[in-house]
Write a structure and sequence with these properties.
By secondary structure, the protein is mostly helical. Helices cover about 70% and strands about 5% of the residues. It has one domain: ABC transporter involved in vitamin B12 uptake, BtuC (Orthogonal Bundle). The longest helix is centred in the first third of the chain and has 29 residues. The termini are far apart.
Length: about 290
């Protein structure tokens, strides 16, 4: 493969990380909570599509829509049951709960689906596109992933800036108490944020498994951590930051794997994150939040 091929593959992988990171950054930006179960919602959504296509013979698009709906509901349930009671709790309690929810979903997946890895089908079936007289081949799934990521990012930006619900999210992210006094339904807004993030997780899961064709109960674990890294890299709480952070992370990982070492690729990714945060602690697009006293 040429450098351009690796670069395009990195952008594709980064687009998946970006979609996942958008879920992290929205939840943190509005609810000020880190949903570490996000990666496992990705796994659940992928299983829904897998069984919808393989066991029930549903069309791929129908299976994906069902996956998005179920993951959206799952995200709201997780928020209501696990996170809502802890909104004013210490950060450590929230972190322990998030990890507990993650382990719960993974173990439920082990119970219902087994530990064996499953070959995820090519549900979308895009053909490979040849360019430059056949010298450069780009999988159709790669192009589709990049386009979907851009559409989602632009759609979220428009939703936040142009809709009443989006404005409510901005108000809640600034000051929950003040937003409540202005008539904003804070509980509903936070639930909507979890719902959107979890719906995006389902889409990211399909894109991830369609490229790597492997599905097991731990499929979302490491990509979830990398997506969180991308959100921090770009500036957690920033939608453009999650997008750029995800793309950069994917490019760094893919080029490191190709030109340095596949075994060191993850270490290089996290090393770059540490360097960036040492230089700019709030991330590339983040801004310093001043605490009110």
């Amino acid at each position: 493969m040429s450098f351009v091929s690796y670069l395009i593959a990195g952008i594709s992988l980064g687009s998946i990380y970006a979609i996942m990171a958008l879920g992290y950054t929205m939840v943190y930006g509005i609810a000020k909570m880190l949903n570490f179960a996000h990666g496992d919602v990705i796994m659940v959504g992928s299983y829904v599509v897998f069984y919808g296509v393989n066991s029930y013979g549903l069309p791929p698009v129908v299976s994906i829509v069902i996956s998005v709906i179920l993951c959206t509901i799952l995200g709201v349930v997780i928020e209501k049951v696990a996170y809502k009671p802890l909104r004013k709790a210490a950060s450590l309690a929230v972190l322990i709960t998030a990890i507990g929810v993650s382990y719960l979903l993974e173990n439920l997946a082990l119970l219902f689906f087994g530990s064996d890895s499953k070959a995820f089908p090519d549900v979308l079936g895009f053909p490979t596109i040849s360019l430059a007289g056949g010298k450069l081949s780009i999988p159709g799934m790669t192009i589709f992933t990049i386009v979907v990521c851009i559409i989602i990012m632009v759609g979220l930006m428009i939703f936040i800036k142009r809709t009443r619900a989006g404005q409510a999210m901005l108000a809640v992210s600034e000051d929950k108490d003040a937003a409540a006094l202005m008539g904003v339904n804070v509980n509903g807004t936070i639930s909507l944020t979890f719902a959107i993030g979890s719906g995006l997780a389902a889409i990211a899961g399909v894109l991830l498994c369609s490229q790597y064709h492997v599905l097991n109960p731990y499929t979302g674990a490491l990509p979830g951590i990398k997506a969180f890294t991308a959100a921090v890299f770009g500036g957690i709480g920033s939608i453009p930051g999650a997008f750029v952070g995800g793309l950069l992370l994917g490019i760094i990982e893919d080029l490191s794997s190709a030109y340095i070492s596949s075994q060191l690729a993850n270490a290089i990714v996290f090393a770059v994150l540490i360097i960036v945060l040492l230089v700019k602690p709030t991330g590339l697009f983040g801004h310093q939040i001043r605490e009110k006293v």
